[in-house]
Amino acid sequence: MPSLQKSSAPQDRSQTVIPTHRDKVAAAGSELIGGPYGRRAAADTGQLTPVRVIALVALGMYALGMVQKLPCYNWAWFRGTTSQYTHACYSDIPHLFVGRGFADGLVPYFDRLAGDIPFLEYPVLTGLFMEVAAWLTPGGGDMTQREQWYWLVNAGLLMVCAAVLAVCVARTHRLRPWDGLLVALAPSVALTATINWDILAVALTAAAVLMWSRSRPLAFGILLGLATAAKFYPILLLCPLLLLCWRAGKWRAYGTAVLGACGAWLVVNLPVMLLAPEGWKQFYLFSRDRNVDFGSIWLLVSQRTGDVITPGRANLYALLLMAAAVAGLAFLAFTAPRRPRFVQLAFLVVAAFVLTNKVYSPQYVLWLVPLAALARPRWRDFLVWQACEVVYFVGVWMYLAFTTSGNKQGLPVDGYQFAIVLHLLGTLYLCAMVVRDILTPEKDPVRQDGADDPSGGVLDGAEDVVVAGRAAHPARHAAPAVTEGQRVRWGTTDDPWSAPE
What we know:
The chain is mainly alpha-helical.
C-alpha cells in the first residue's frame, strides 16, 4: 500500500506554479502591473526569468528602504535623538561605528571599549563583517562624514545579502519560484534591512535551506554553522530537522548536517575563543544579562502589572515556554497525518523564539520573512502579518520619540502596548495558519500542487519509520502514513531506535 507521504497526484515538473493562477490576492494585485500572468508572457519571457525578476524587485525594494533612511542620513542621526525616531529612520550602524571603537581602529573582541560594555557584543562573524566594512570606509573628513560612509558601505554589503536571500528563497521550491516575491516585496525587509546586520545571518540561513532542499546536508550544515556564527537563532533549525529525520529515519543526513554546522561554527569562533576569550564570550554574557526590552511580551507584562521582571526570571520563563513549544513541535512532527514540511516546523520554532524572547528589535522580523514565505505562500496571510509588523515598526520609534522628548511627541505607553499586542497577534495568526496546514495537509498551498516537501531534500517523498497518534492509525479507507512493514508505534514492544536509516 503506498505511503501517504508519497504524492497522490505527481507534479508535472515541466509546469511552474503561477501565483496569479492560484491566489486571488496575487491575481487582484497583479492588475497594477497588467494583470495575471498569461500565455503572451509565457511565450515572450526573454531574459527575465522568475529568479532574475525577483532579484531585481528585491534590489529595488532595498533601494527604497535606503531612501526611507535619507532624513537620518542627512542630519537626524547627528542632531539629537528624537528626530531619528519621529522620522522612523533609526539605524544602529552609524552609532556603533563610534560606540564600538571602529572609528578609532580598535580590533573587536581584542581591544577593550570604554563604557558599560567592555567588548563588542555581537557574534564573531557579524563582528568580522563590521570590521571589514570599517576597513572599506574612507578615513578622510569629519566624524559625521565617516559615519555616513560607514553606513553606506554596510548598506552596499547588506544589499548583496538581500539579493542572495531573495534568490535562495525563489530557488528553494523548484516549481514555485514566484513565492520569492513575498520576500522581495515584503515592506518589513525594506524598512529594517539596514537597521542592523541581521540580514547577513538571514541570507546564510536561506542559503542553507536551499542546500538542504537539494539533498546536500553537508553544505546545509556548513552554511547553517556560518549563520549561527553571525546570529544565534539559525541553530534552532536543527531541532525541527531532528524531529523530521527521526520520523523518516534519515539519521545519516542529519548527522552530516550537525557535523557540518559544528565544524563551520568552530572554524569561525575557535581562533577568537582561544586568543580573546573575554571578548568572545561578551555576546553570550550580554544576551544572558540583558534586561527585558522593547517589543517583548515580558515588557508588556511588566508595564501592565508594574512587576519588574529581572533578566534571570525572563530567561527562565522564556526557557520554559520554548521547551513547551518544542514539545508541541514534537507532537506535530510525529502525529500529523503527513510528515510536516521542513520549513513549516522551521518557521514555527523561530516564531516561538521570537515570541518568547526578552527583546524584539524591529529587524528581528527578518528572521521570519523567508521561512514564512516558504511555509505559508499565500499573499493574504503574509500581508496580514506584514501589516502588523509595519504597525509595530512605526510604533516602537514613536514610543522612543515619546520617551526621549519628555512626553511631548510620539506614541504614549498605551499606544505602544497596542503595537506590541498587534505584533504578537499577527505572528500567532501566521503560526495558526501553518499549524492548520500541517494538521490538514490538503489545505497546504504547496501540497495542493501535488508536492510533498520541496524544501525537504532527503525527506521529500520519504516513507515514515516512526509515527504516533493519527499518523499511526489512519482513518479507514485512507492510505496509511507509512507502509505496514515499516510502521513503528509508540508504546508497543517494537523498538523505535532500531528503525532503518
